[in-house]
Design brief:
six-stranded antiparallel β-sheet; Alpha-D-Glucose-1,6-Bisphosphate, Chain A, domain 3; six-stranded mixed β-sheet; 21 strands; TATA-Binding Protein; 3 domains
Length: 589
Amino acid sequence: MSTPERSSKNEHSVDGSSQEHSRCELDDAIARWLAEDPDQETVRELSELRASNVEAARMLFAGRIAFGTAGLRAPMGPGPLRMNQLVVRQTTAGLMRWLSDRSTGPVRVVIGFDARTNSKKFADEAARTVAANGGIAELIPEPTPTPVLARAVLDRSACAGVMITASHNPAPDNGYKLYLDDGIQLSSPADAEIAAAIDQVVSRVQQPSDASSELAMAPRSERVHELGSAVIDQHKKVAIGVLHTDARNISVLYTPVHGVGGAQALACFHAAGFPVPMVVAAQFGPDPNFSTAQYPNPEDPGALAPALAEAARLQQSGVDLDLIIANDPDADRLAVTVWQPDQGWIQLSGDHLGALLADHILRHSELGGHDLVVSSVVSSLLVPKMAAAVGVESVRTLTGFKWIARPIVDRPEARYLFGYEEALGFCIGNQVRDKDGISAALLIAEAAAEQRRNGRTLLDRLDRLFVQHGIHLTGQLVVDLGAMDQSDRALTKRKALALSPSSLAGIPVADREDLAEGRRLPPASGILLNLQDGSRVVVRPSGTEPKIKIYLEVVAAVESLDEVEEAKEVAKHKLEGLKRSVADLVAND
């Protein structure tokens, strides 16, 4: 196990008596943990670490994993700041306490897991904890895509759903993603209430000899049910249901990037009547080590390198290819790369992919008076402009699908057509109330097949949207806080959120909005800078990583298709200038 980073550079600046007192408290905390930990591997790791590196052991007990984007996510290892069986047991016991206080009938929890190291073990731990606390655990027994679990919460009328996954995080990580009975990811205030319930469960164990009934485990029993293929079939039905036309003639190369989406994606393509995609064999089987992708995120160019190499091989052998489609390891995100005969392979940004999906939906839906499209505040303004042009309401939310999917239940009078965020997340309709990379893959394949039937590509269609609404080009800057200690991280975050320039790249700032004020959205950490020419800058801390993320958007007018390429160059120049200006401001602040 790697040695944890030190959380404070002043960690050793205490006198000897304080150090001894801290060591006694640490020894007590470790003893209590070892007495409760059911996993002999993490027991051994912690015991060895306590003997060899007390400061590294101390770092593992400097707090607990906090609920972030809908649950927990952290590297695997011993202690309350890592993902392990005891953290899963404690978290699930707290969840059961919270659910039991609010339920008048049986507490039913659906549980799924991906193919990461320990995911099945953690899922089984969660299921047995639900059963030990009087609930009914319904366990999907094989690794499955996250959208399948999200849909199963609704199909099974469950009180909650737990998905053991770390999505596209690196191989050492795992996580615990939580849905409530509405099928939407956990959000406030329930996250704080469940965190408090977990703390109550943990605090009941004060000494190594104590036993908490909520943590006392029983073997798998009649209260743990294994679900059959019906949940897989139901998701397949929902995914096929997003399609609008009979356009199916498209040639696709597909990769699940070593994740769990492969079988379900191919089954859905086949059932929908598409030619079954060719696959990137080196990445098709689930691999918890992600052997060909250091960062198994399809936003990272390296993750798609094997797909591009396979596409080149197929094209050299005479195979006609239109698209490369990739899901992330739990198949809730979608990346698309388009073959453009005069340019080669071009990967679509999340914003441009969102615009193409929205365009296809808006053009093929019978629009009424209460239709919605939803996007996050850091996503492009192109989709809201497209919606307005056809009289559809556009809703902007905070980042994360716990907010993007929320109008499905908060606005029951409206029809939810589409929701997206720039980080390759797409929610089509209201049947899976989270991002679903498989249904989105089917829809973009249909959109591409329609364009092919007309002798065009998705990029050609995007150019036509640019002529209608202006070229919208987005980019991102990232300030990585990972190498900083806690005090420097906090200082950098405060500086970033205090930015208040009068101009950027020579363009006056027309409006500055502090998202913490809750002017239009629920209060959140971040700032929004609107420039006079329609450009935008959004600064916000990441919810899952020690990073400050800065989102940029520029807009360039274009009058005709003949002028698109020239206007794209203008937009690129504007974006690069805005990036430099913002980077200089952050560096020199």
